[in-house]
C-alpha cells in the first residue's frame, strides 16, 4: 500500500511539473499586429521574447531592471528599446539568468526564454530570426506590464 502511494504521488508530481502554464493573453488584435513583424519606431530596436515550450512554469521577464511581463507556454511579447546594450533577465521557480544584447536602431531581435521539464534554471538567449518568427506565429501574445 505504501509503495502504491509513493508511486501515485511521484506520478502526480511528474505530471504537474510538465503541465502547461497560463498567463493572461493580449487580445486578438494585439496578437495579429505583433505577428506582422512591423518595424520599431524610429531610433528604437524591437525585441520579441518567446517561450516555445509546451511544458514550463510561468517565467518572469525583466528588461534593464524593470519587469515587463510573464511568459507561459507557447506565448510571446514584443517591446521596443533604445539603442545600445540592453540586459534582459528571466526568473521563475527559484532561478534567474540574463543576457545582454547590443541593439541598433531598426533592429528586430528574438529572445528565447524557457525552462524545460527537468531543468532547474530558466534559460534566456538570442535566437535566430527564423526560429523566433516561427515561435511567435505559433504562439499567443501575453499581456505586458
Explain how this protein is built.
The protein is of the alpha+beta class. The protein has a single domain, classed as Immunoglobulin-like (Sandwich), CATH 2.60.40. The chain has helices at 2-18, 28-34, 129-138; strands spanning 45-51, 59-63, 66-71, 75-81, 84-92, 95-103, 108-114, 123-127, 140-141. The longest helix is centred in the first third of the chain and has 17 residues, at 2-18.
Short characterization:
This protein is of the alpha+beta class. The protein has helices at 2-18, 28-34, 129-138, and strands spanning 45-51, 59-63, 66-71, 75-81, 84-92, 95-103, 108-114, 123-127, 140-141.
Q: Quickly count the helices.
A: 3
Q: Write the H/E string, N to C.
A: HHEEEEEEEEHE
CATH architecture classification name:
Sandwich
Q: At the first level of CATH, what is the class?
A: Mainly Beta
Looking at how many chains there are and whether they match, the oligomeric state comes to: single chain
Low-confidence stretches: 1-18
**Helical percentage:** 10-25%
In terms of DSSP E residues, the strand content is: 35-45%
The major β-sheet equals: 5 strands, mixed
Structural class: alpha+beta
Mean of residue pLDDT values: 87
CATH topology: Immunoglobulin-like
Q: Give the N-to-C terminal Cα separation.
A: 49 Å
Radius of gyration: 17 Å
Q: How many domains make up the 3D coordinates?
A: 1
Shape: globular
Give the arrangement of secondary structure elements.
Layout: H1 2-18, H2 28-34, E1 45-51, E2 59-63, E3 66-71, E4 75-81, E5 84-92, E6 95-103, E7 108-114, E8 123-127, H3 129-138, E9 140-141
Parallel strand pairs: 1-7, 4-9
Antiparallel strand pairs: 1-4, 2-3, 2-5, 5-6, 7-8
Amino acid at each position: 500500500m505504501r509503495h502504491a502511494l509513493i508511486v501515485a504521488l511521484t506520478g502526480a508530481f511528474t505530471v504537474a511539473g510538465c503541465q502547461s502554464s497560463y498567463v493572461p493573453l493580449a487580445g486578438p488584435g494585439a496578437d495579429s499586429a505583433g505577428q506582422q513583424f512591423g518595424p520599431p519606431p524610429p531610433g528604437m530596436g524591437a525585441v520579441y521574447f518567446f517561450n516555445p515550450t509546451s511544458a514550463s512554469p510561468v517565467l518572469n521577464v525583466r528588461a534593464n531592471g524593470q519587469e515587463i511581463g510573464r511568459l507561459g507556454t507557447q506565448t510571446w511579447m514584443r517591446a521596443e528599446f533604445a539603442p545600445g546594450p540592453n540586459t534582459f533577465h528571466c526568473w521563475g521557480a527559484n532561478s534567474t539568468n540574463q543576457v545582454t544584447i547590443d541593439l541598433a536602431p531598426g533592429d528586430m531581435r528574438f529572445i528565447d526564454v524557457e525552462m524545460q521539464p527537468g531543468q532547474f534554471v530558466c534559460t534566456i538567449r538570442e535566437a535566430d530570426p527564423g526560429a523566433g518568427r516561427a515561435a511567435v506565429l505559433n504562439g499567443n501574445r501575453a499581456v505586458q506590464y
